[in-house]
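Severity: low
Component: inverse-folding endpoint
Summary: output formatting inconsistent between runs
Steps to reproduce: submit the following structure tokens with default settings.
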């Protein structure tokens, strides 16, 4: 394998009812240090800007503050934070990210998202349309980049950027000297608009694909889009989400999987599906066939059109009851789940790592704290033994793995 796969981890908020809750800063820092010691390349900080009832009793830190604290305590691993382009301003974000780049010697990346919720917390009664959110996101990323270059090549001659559009007006320059390294920009939208934005602006992408052919289809769409907007022939590095569930036996692993998702009530899981699809399913019995005739045209989906599209395809290829759809599509938010013993999971990840349609993984750590240790203690060593997880030697080479691919 010419270029080793990238491995990052994403810690998830513990589900209600977990036997041990690890949600303090000390717990998060311990996970970041374990990830670095295990030879991983990145520590991914997800975020949401609205209230999550299922996670209401657990801590969700503001990601920029958390990233700064983590960067000061780890030496090689990249910290990737999630930032909404819909509910933030690029000057503030550029200033914060540049500060973090200096604090962490360039080891900061950002996953720019357009957000599918939280509008009531920012004075809005309705979420802007997908077209509006992605148009603003493209300009937002461009302004952040222009601010990063607003000091000139020798970083001694700050100059206003005077950016003006329907969405943003920013004079500049940035009030802090830029870091020598270019900001690592990621994007995770799976709709056509999200793929187009990633092709234009991202060094890496975070995608969800439950099956090989879905991964290949996303890769093909991204590569085709990049070929139309990039003269240098590059494309973003593709990281695919994967959730490992490990047990001493296959049967025990599946028991863990069932117990973990049994923590969320059926009503809570149904609410999440309704939010994605934009329809009310409260009058449908769990055992009834899913009412496909109620599905909205995909262009009418406001919050998560890419996620909705993957559910539409799943329904086209599977005749499911409502309960079956809810169970399969709320599990790890549509990401690939691999269940089995540590050897079985390591074998499957090794196989997936050999696909030409991805460059690495974002490992979604289990939402039950007691299952996290097996990922670090059993899975990652096996991946190292198989030559799949290969630690970079230093911070610079770790960061270089996220660069665009030819």
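Observed output (run 2 of 3):
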């Amino acid at each position: 394998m010419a270029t080793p796969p990238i491995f990052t981890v994403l810690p998830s908020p513990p589900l209600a009812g977990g036997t041990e809750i690890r949600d303090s800063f000390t717990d998060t820092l311990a996970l970041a240090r374990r990830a670095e010691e295990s030879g991983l390349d990145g520590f991914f900080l997800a975020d949401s800007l609205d209230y999550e009832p299922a996670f209401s009793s657990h801590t969700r830190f503001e990601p920029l503050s958390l990233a700064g604290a983590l960067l000061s305590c780890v030496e090689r691993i990249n910290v990737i934070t999630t930032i909404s382009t819909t509910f933030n301003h690029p000057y503030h974000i550029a200033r914060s990210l540049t500060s973090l780049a200096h604090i962490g010697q360039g080891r900061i990346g950002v996953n720019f998202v357009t957000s599918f919720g939280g509008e009531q917390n920012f004075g809005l009664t309705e979420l802007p349309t997908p077209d509006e959110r992605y148009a603003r996101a493209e300009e937002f990323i461009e302004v952040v980049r222009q601010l990063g270059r607003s000091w000139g090549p020798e970083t001694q001659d700050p100059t206003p950027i005077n950016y003006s559009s329907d969405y943003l007006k920013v004079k500049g320059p940035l009030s802090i000297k830029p870091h020598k390294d270019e900001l690592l920009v990621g994007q995770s939208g799976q709709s056509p608009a999200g793929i187009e934005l990633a092709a234009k602006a991202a060094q890496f992408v975070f995608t969800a694909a439950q099956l090989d052919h879905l991964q290949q289809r996303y890769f093909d769409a991204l590569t085709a889009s990049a070929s139309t907007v990039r003269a240098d022939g590059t494309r973003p590095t593709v990281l695919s989400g994967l959730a490992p569930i490990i047990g001493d036996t296959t049967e025990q692993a599946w028991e863990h999987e069932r117990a973990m998702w049994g923590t969320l009530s059926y009503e809570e899981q149904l609410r999440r599906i309704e939010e994605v699809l934009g329809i009310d399913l409260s009058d449908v019995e769990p055992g009834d066939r899913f009412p496909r005739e109620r599905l909205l045209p995909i262009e009418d989906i406001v919050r998560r059109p890419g996620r909705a599209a993957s559910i539409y395809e799943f329904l086209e290829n599977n005749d499911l009851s409502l309960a079956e759809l809810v169970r399969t599509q709320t599990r790890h938010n549509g990401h690939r789940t691999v269940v089995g013993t540590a050897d079985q999971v390591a074998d499957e990840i090794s196989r997936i790592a050999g696909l030409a349609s991805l460059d690495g993984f974002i490992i979604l750590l289990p939402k039950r704290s007691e299952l996290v240790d097996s990922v670090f203690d059993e899975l990652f060593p096996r991946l190292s033994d198989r030559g799949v997880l290969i630690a970079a030697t230093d911070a610079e080479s770790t960061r270089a793995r996220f660069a665009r691919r030819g």
